[in-house]
Amino acid sequence: MEEEKVEEVLTTKERVEKVKKETEKLINMDQVKELIKNNVKEFEHGGIKYRTKKPNFEQKYTVNNEQSKKYIEMLKDTAYALESDLIKIYKDRGIDIEGLDTRFQNIQKEKEEIDKKLGKALEDKLPESDCEILAEEIKKLQAEQQTVMMEKSVLLNDSLESKLNVYSYTYLAYLITEKNISEDPEKPNWIKPWKNYDEFIKEDESLVNVLVWFTMFVARDEIKSF
Predict the structure, then answer these.
(1) pLDDT tens by residue, 17-39
(2) Which of 13, 41, 139, 199 has its CA 20 to 30 A from that of 147?
(3) End-to-end CA distance of the chain
(4) Do both 203 and 114 map to the same domain?
């Protein structure tokens, strides 16, 4: 008799840790800094060089139209729960989503106070060891903020807004990604890799994940919120 498979059930904390580890595999902070500075990212995958870059007006217009159409489509489908509905359901089960926002804001205030202390310490030319202690405190608070944000994201992952956000950035990744078909490193020839969005989402999952992740940084604030 074939052994019955037991579905893995993860606690919220375990799911947050899993998301953090998967995120770290995709990209490191040096890449994030480079992306934010240059608004373009080139990388190689499967022997092919790809790049994502800040969207132009036409691309932003297109993705916002697609997002609006998808939003109306999802609103008509009762299978999708709004974020506000999920927050109420969690509250009835003793999970305070709004409390996570308060925690984040409190950590931010604490971090800003230490930022001021660090600035004053540097201005007064205090010993490097004193400055390092303050800098470490700031890093710990930043890590705590990241955990709070991820916990909220994991809890609301099944909301309509979250699904819409993923769709929007995935569609934008399809629009702004190009691949180089030239063998001459001095004369690159960048073209669109896919004929349409359906072809894009059938692409290798690891490539799509990386492209969407890069797009979230290179096109930050380009997607409207509902």
Answers:
(1) 665 555 555 455 555 555 555 67
(2) 41
(3) 50
(4) no
